[in-house]
Design brief:
- It is built from 3 helices and 3 strands, in the order H-E-E-H-E-H.
- The chain has helices at 8-13, 38-45, 53-62, and strands at 14-16, 22-24, 48-50.
- Strands 1-2-3 form a 3-stranded antiparallel beta sheet.
- It starts with 7 loop residues before the first helix and ends with a helix.
Length: 66
């Protein structure tokens, strides 16, 4: 069987944790920060852990070997 190709755009946006969950950066932390309060900006810094099964299945297809 032919090797599957990794979608490079997805591989750059997501990474795996030790338990196999997906880690991604949250959006909305690059501009228009003066209107957002400190608590909101602080929470946007932390990576987002994706535990949803539907989304994980879709991304597993796009990143078969990561």
């Amino acid at each position: 069987m032919k090797k599957l190709k990794t979608r490079r755009g997805v591989a750059k946006r997501f990474s795996r944790t030790a338990k196999g969950h997906l880690k991604a950066h949250k959006g909305g932390h690059s501009h228009l920060l003066s209107s957002k309060n400190r608590k909101r900006k602080r929470r946007l810094k932390d990576p987002d852990i994706i535990k949803s099964g539907r989304i994980r299945k879709r991304i597993n297809i796009l990143m078969p070997y990561q």
